[in-house]
Amino acid sequence: MARIHAPGHRAHRAHRALAALALLAVSAGSVTACGGGGSAHREPAPSASAPAVPEAHRTAEPELHMIDNDGHRLAFHVTEGHGPAIVLDAGGGEDSSYWKDIVPGLHAATGATIITYDRPGLGKSEAVPGAWDVRSAVSDLGTGLRKLGVTQDVVLVSHSQAGEIATYFTKENPELVSGSVLVDASLPPLYTDEEIARLVAANQPAVDAAKKDPSQPRNSQLISVAESYAPMHKAYHQVSWPDAVPATVIVSEKTPFDGSPEDAQLWRDAAASFVGQGPDRTLVTAKGSSHDVPKDRPALVIEEIGKMAAARG
């Protein structure tokens, strides 16, 4: 399967190396929008700007908490508020700073406690050697929330690869997660045996390049994901989301794929299929957005999180 990259994407490819495998995709490219197949489907008008932050909320600063779990330390950043805690989980290769432009507006809009965190080897968190393991990632998130005293009413917001963490975490903790917003997330229906094989083959050059300089954090993350990628996603394809936990799925118009309409359509189809598999699920298309919906459509992301928080609060 050929991948076509415009010259302007060459610098961008290096930045998106981890996303290339973790999402099983390559740099974002143009595609056509998908008609919905879920229980509900909305296509909001494009709006790039986040809501203005009132002066009263601009002084809120996150507090750093270092959490120990299974021999390593993890950085959790907490902006105090009230009501359901909103947990923001960034995609592959990204740390908590991915949400820096979302947190102030979200805190202003909801007044909720906002929690972001750095997975191992990213941001202020310690690295963990070996293959990336979604079960370990679930343990890291669960331990962090428990030690922060968050034991109920979590609204879990997950971008990209973090959708895999969200799926396992929510399945194991349906009493803790009251609702979820999955932002162009990696979802189980995508990972058929055929698609796994296609994506692994397409992204092998990125893995080979990363192995030439494994000391770089993004490269080491890419290598660790690649080591367990195929078996992990074969298992992930069979995982179901609990019916008791509502979910809003925001799918980007362009998806993570560049030059591959077939894979882009499969990505959109996976989002629609996920929504159609259970009750209380809504599909929202982020018109005009690349895979980085929180960057391209922050107001939309804040709006959908606010709706979920209000409904579950």
Automatic annotation (TrEMBL):
Residues 45-54 have a biased composition (Low complexity). It holds the Pfam family Abhydrolase_6. Residues 35-54 are annotated as: Disordered. Residues 1-33 form the signal peptide. Keywords: Hydrolase, Signal. Residues 86-303 form the AB hydrolase-1 domain. GO terms for molecular function: hydrolase activity. This is Alpha/beta fold hydrolase.
